[in-house]
Amino acid sequence: MSIVPFSEFVLFRPIFFILLAATVVNSLYLIFLQKKIKASYVISFNSFLMLIAAVVLSNQQLLIVSELNFLEDRVGMVSIVLIAVLLVASLLTLLAKTKDKKQRITRNKL
Known about the structure:
Shape: rod-shaped
Radius of gyration: 19 Å
Number of strands: 0
Strand content: under 5%
Mean pLDDT: 78
Number of helices: 3
Low-confidence stretches: none
Order of helices and strands: HHH
Largest sheet: none
């Protein structure tokens, strides 16, 4: 039984915000500041790990909420969706830039 019934469990909210902010920084790097291919793949992998961390954190939050009879905080789910969208957008941009770079190299060789 919880101390305050039907209140939201918001203790993980700052962690979701930190993961979201880190993903935004990674995505901005991949979209606008890409200089080295190797670094881009590391940043992409880092963003993917942040998505996994957010999903695991959300799962733990749901377990705590169900045990303590709190209301679920929807910010975590919104953060996961935003992290996933940013990850997909940055990966698509990375693939497009890599493909464009390969085409330019091929044209220069001809």
